[in-house]
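Thread: quick sanity check before group meeting

JM: Hey all, I'm pulling together slides for Thursday and realized we never actually wrote out the predicted structure for the chain we discussed last week. Dropping the sequence here so it's in one place. If anyone has concerns about the input, flag it before I start.
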Amino acid sequence: MNPRTYAELIRKHLSLMDFRKVELIADRLFRGWIREKQVFTMGNGGSMATASHFASDLCKSVSGRKKDLFRVISLSDNTPLLTALANDFGYERVFEKQLENSLRAGDFVIALSASGNSPNLVRAVRCASRAGAETVALVGFDGGKLKKIAGHCLHIPENNYAIVEDIHLILTHMICSLFKKKLNSVFLKK
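JM (edit): ok, ran it. Output follows.
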């Protein structure tokens, strides 16, 4: 695909995005931060990298504030734990098993997946829903199972992995920017 076509596809999908959903997710995360809830992000492959990046950006957003940092954990980042869980329980349970140890009602579980059908992400989102956590999915293609089971969903109806992953990164940056704006409005009032 030539660069112009690639850029046009990204532009097209962003122009069709319902940005109220992006704002809602940022608002829910901000309310979670106020209530001292945790955020767990996860993904596979390129989505794993975005999940890790998103966790870092969310945590960094509150650095230097008088309130504690946002407790944000990328379930994809602990390679020894991932491989131990995969070895003992199967790869489809690597995120679910981590959530079973740490998840509390009202926490957030954010799954990133181009297909929306990764068994390990689907199991983890179902586990999170049973535990009373808020669930968010960033998906592509037809949205897969995650689109149907997540409480909040940002869906890019595109079958090209690179386009979907690039837009997911843009959306996570938008969410962080909105989250930081909400933080600033609170701290400027004090």
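AS: nice. The radius of gyration is 16 Å. Residues 3-189 form a domain with the Rossmann fold fold (CATH 3.40.50.10490).
JM: adding both to the slides.
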